[in-house]
Every structure is written in structure tokens, then in C-alpha cells.
Amino acid sequence: MERAATRVGARGPLRIPSRRVGRGQLQVVAFKKVSKKVEVVLSKDVASVGTSGTVKKVSRGYFKNYLYPQGLAEPVTDQVMEKMKAQQARDAAAKEALKEDAKKIATALSIAKNFTVKKEANEENTYGSVTMAELKAIIKKQTTLDLSDDVIDLPVIKELGTFTVTANLHPEVKQDFTVTVEKA
């Protein structure tokens, strides 16, 4: 048996226990690198990481200290993936509904096709240009559609004649119609 070492201190001798073989020792079997990245599903758009609904690998500390407490991301699990797929399906259905509404408006504009604006004018030029408010009022009168200003791409019209105007109803749906400017 091994002897315990003794040391003399201010209060007397100190006993330092000896190491006993086989008791309390840790044996390392394999060295494995700990993953420093974790897969997460983004709940909201994060500027430097990605958009909502995407699966990204981020550092464990960034997720634990920022993304998760702010509610910007969740760890990848089956439940979270099912929830995100359901949300993406709802979003796709909403986008499709917007596209269908835009197609209906485009059909109404193509049926009306020609809108006439009467302006005070001399032989060839009008006294002032055709405004967005005038054009929207005429479109509403003929088709009962109330279009917003950012939908209609109105060029500067300061003379009598026929002009083509484009309505950007949806990124995939555009409709051209004509505006005829006549002397009042």
C-alpha cells in the first residue's frame, strides 16, 4: 500500500491523500469534435442569415444567445418542420389568390380597353397634363375598379391623342389599355 505524504503547516502536519488506482479515474475512449453549428428554422427574416421558413446552420452561441430569445428561429424538429410546411402552403395559397384577383382586374380592363379623358386644350396641346386622379376617376366610372396609384404606370400626357398605359397588377400580371385625350 502507498503511503500518504505529509507536510508540516502552521497548525500541524497536513495529510495529502494518495491516489488510489481504479477509483474515480476517467478514461477517454475517443476524441470527437463537438459540432459548433446547429440547424435552425428561421421564423422571421434575419438580415445576414436568410428569409423566413428556410433551414440554416448557425453557430450554437448565435442561436442560443440571439436568435432563440428574440423568437427569430427554432431548432429543427419534426413538429417545427410540419408547422413551417403548413405556413408555406397557406402563403402559397394567398399568393395564388392575389394572382387570381389581379387576373380578374386585368380582364375587366381589357374589356373596357379604351378610356377617354376630356381636357381643355388648344389645337394640339392640353392646358396641363392628365393626372392620376382624373384617370382613376374615369376607370372607376367605367369599370367600378378602384386602382391604387402605384399600380398604374402613367406617362406624362400633355397633348391630344391616344396613349398606351400599363397597369402592373401583379409581378406576373400586366395589362395595357389605351387612354384617349380629347378636347373638352
Commentary on this structure:
- This is Large ribosomal subunit protein bL9c.
- The protein has 184 residues and is an alpha+beta fold.
- It has a domain at 102-183: Ribosomal Protein L9, domain 2.
- Helix content is 32%, strand content 29%.
- The chain has helices at residues 60-70, 78-112, 132-143, and strands at residues 5-9, 12-16, 37-42, 55-59, 73-75, 114-119, 152-153, 161-170, 173-183.
- The strands form three sheets. It has a four-stranded mixed sheet. It has a three-stranded antiparallel sheet with strand order 4-3-5, with helices on both faces.
- It is rod-shaped.
- The mean pLDDT is 86.
Average pLDDT metric = 86
Q: Radius of gyration, Cα only, in angstroms?
A: 37 Å
Instruction: Count up the helices.
Output: 3
Proportion of β residues?
A: 25-35%
Low-confidence regions = none
CATH architecture of the domain at 102-183: Roll
State the secondary-structure class: alpha+beta
User: Going by CATH, what is the homologous superfamily of the domain at 102-183?
Assistant: Ribosomal protein L9, C-terminal domain
How many E strands?
A: 9
Overall morphology: rod-shaped
Query: Mind describing the biggest β-sheet?
Result: 4 strands, mixed
Distance between the termini: 120 Å
Strand arrangement within the widest β-sheet reads 6-9-8-7
- CATH top level of the domain at 102-183 is Alpha Beta
Kindly report the CATH topology of the domain at 102-183: Ribosomal Protein L9, domain 2
Order of helices and strands: EEEEHEHEHEEE
Helix content: 25-40%
InterPro entries: Ribosomal_bL9, Ribosomal_bL9/RNase_H1_N, Ribosomal_bL9_bac/chp, Ribosomal_bL9_C, Ribosomal_bL9_C_sf, Ribosomal_bL9_N, Ribosomal_bL9_N_sf
Protein name: Large ribosomal subunit protein bL9c
Family: Belongs to the bacterial ribosomal protein bL9 family.
Pfam families: Ribosomal_L9_C (PF03948), Ribosomal_L9_N (PF01281)
